[in-house]
Amino acid sequence: MSPDAHARVPADLRAAPALALAAILVAACAAPSPTPSPPAPTQPAPTEVPTPVVTAPPFACDQALDRPGTVPIAQMSGLTVVNDAGLGRITFTFLPSGNVAAIPQVKIRPATPPFTMDPSGLPLEVAGVAFLEIVLLGGTALDESYEPTFEGPFDVVPGGSPIVELRRAGDFEAVSSWVVGLDGPSCVRVLPFDGTSRLVIEIQAE
Q1: Residue 159 · residue 84 · CB < 8 Å
Q2: From 91's CA, which of 27, 41, 120, 154 has a CA 20 to 30 Å away?
C-alpha cells in the first residue's frame, strides 16, 4: 500500500467519530432531568389542651347536702381527719371498682344529740357542741363476704379546730353513718371528684 492510502480515506468516514460524539452530547442535553422529590410535609405543632380547672363549691351553712356517687357499692379502704389553719378535712378513701373511681352517694346534714349506734340502738357519745351527720349510701368497710376492707380507726380525734371528733355510728346493709363533733357552728362542702376513689369533705367555722 502506498503512503497516500490513509490520506485517501473518504471525508465522511473521517468525520464519523466527531458526529457520534456530538449526537451523544445532544441526547444528554435533551434527556429530561430527574423530577425532584417533594419536600416532606411539615408536622403541625402539637396543640396544648388546657387542663380544666375545677372550682370547689361554696360552703353551705345550716343546710343538708346530697351528692350522687359513681357506683352502687364502694368499699372503704382508708380514713383521715385533719384540722389545718381552721379548716377541717375528712377524707374517705375507697377501693377502685375495676377502672372506675368508686365514690358512694353522700348525705350530710346538721344533727343534734342524742346519737345511737346502727343497728343496735345503743347510745353513742360524741364530743363537741355542734354536730353533723354523714351518711354514705353504698359506702361500707365490708366486702361481699362481710370481711373488712378497712379496720379503722373509726373514732378519730384530730386536735385543733373545728373538728373535735369523728365517730362511726354504724355500717349496716352497705350504709355507713358517721357523726362529726365540732367546736361551734360550722359550714360544710364536698369537693368535686378528682378522678380518684376519694371523698373529701371540708368544714370551716360559720
Answers
A1: no
A2: 120
Q: What is the pLDDT of residue 34?
A: 52
Amino acid letter for position 84:
D
Domain 60-205 has CATH 2.60.40.3500: yes
Say how far residue 1 (Cα) sits from the centre of its chain.
105
If you count DSSP H runs as helices and E runs as strands, how many of each does the chain have, helices first? 2, 14
Cβ partners under 8 Å of residue 188, min gap 6: 59, 60, 65, 108, 132, 201, 202, 203
More confident call, 11 vs 152: 152
The neighbouring-strand residues paired with 88 are 83, 203
80: Cβ contacts below 8 Å, ≥ 6 apart: 89, 90, 91, 93
